[in-house]
Amino acid sequence: MPLEVVLGFDNSRETVTGVQIGFENDANQAYGIQLGAANSTHELRGAQLGLINTAEGIGAQLGLMNFTDEARSVFPRDELKIQLGVYNGARNASALQVGVINFFLERTPGLQAGLVCYAEEGTYLQLGLVTSHGAGPWYRRYSPLIGFHRDTKNTQING
User: Fold this and answer.
1) Burial class of residue 92, CB neighbours in 10 A (0-12, 13-18, 19+)
2) Can you say whether the dihedral through the CA atoms of 151, 89, 101, 105 is positive or negative?
3) 69-81: per-residue pLDDT in tens?
4) Distance (Å, rounded) from C-alpha 131 to C-alpha 86?
5) DSSP letter at 137?
6) How far is residue 147's CA from residue 137's CA, in Å, rounded to a whole number?
7) Beta bridge partners of 54
8) 18: part of which helix (H) or strand (E)?
9) What pLDDT digit, counting tens, does each position of 118-130 carry?
């Protein structure tokens, strides 16, 4: 596929291979860079730079609000997503999040660094002013500065 540059106010394409620049960018498959106020793609292999970014697949997101969801992606779950923003949210995806508020939902392995870090299940490390992790009583879920959770549901014991 040849590389392309898509310019416009409201860009909507089935597949983009190259650069998509506009106020609103939407693609079912994006292989390259989306640059705009609002970026959305179902299968990302590349980067999104904008105010609001939503994607499934592997790549980097730099913006005010970033969301990634691996639940319907065609790419393997263990490929890393990098999110840099004020608010970062990931579900069912391996992720590195750096921001003010970071959320991991469902079984999400990775690393979070920010003021507030929240995560449910998975194996992850949190560095933040307030961290919330795992299940159990409230006094075991919250900690200042460092939080850690090890997923024990997928651990097998041989013998």
Assistant:
1) buried
2) negative
3) 874 444 455 566 8
4) 16
5) -
6) 15
7) 40, 67
8) strand 4-35
9) 988 778 889 999 9
Residue type, 144: P
Both tokens of 39, joined, read: 């970026």
d(CA 137, CA 129): 20
Query: Does pTM top 0.90 for this prediction?
Result: no
Question: What b-and-e string marks burial along 28-64, b requiring 16 or more CB atoms within 10 Å of the CB?
Answer: ebbbbbbbbebbbbbbbbbbbbbebbbbbbbbbbbbe
Per-residue tokens: 77: 């779950």
User: What 3-state DSSP class applies to 140?
Assistant: helix
| 3-state SS class at 92 | coil
From residue 142, give the alpha-carbon distance in Å to each of 111, 119, 133, 137, 148: 16, 11, 7, 9, 10
